[in-house]
Each structure stands twice: as structure tokens, then as C-alpha cells.
Design goal:
Blueprint: H1 3-28
Length: 33
């Protein structure tokens, strides 16, 4: 795996993680419950 492939793979992972966190925040709403 060259550096460009590694960067792309880690970028995809970070985007997926951000999306999951965002979805959790939306699901719980402002009250946090």
C-alpha cells in the first residue's frame, strides 16, 4: 500500500466516523437524552 492509498483509506474511515457521530447527535437532539 502506498502513501496515497493509505491517506485515502484513513480519510474514508474518518468520514464514516464523523457521519456516525453526527447521526447520533441528531438522534439524541438538544436535550441529550
Amino acid at each position: 500500500m502506498d502513501i496515497e492509498d493509505a491517506v485515502e483509506a484513513f480519510g474514508a474511515l474518518s468520514q464514516e466516523t464523523r457521519l456516525r457521530v453526527f447521526r447520533l447527535l441528531v438522534e439524541y437532539g438538544q436535550d441529550g437524552t
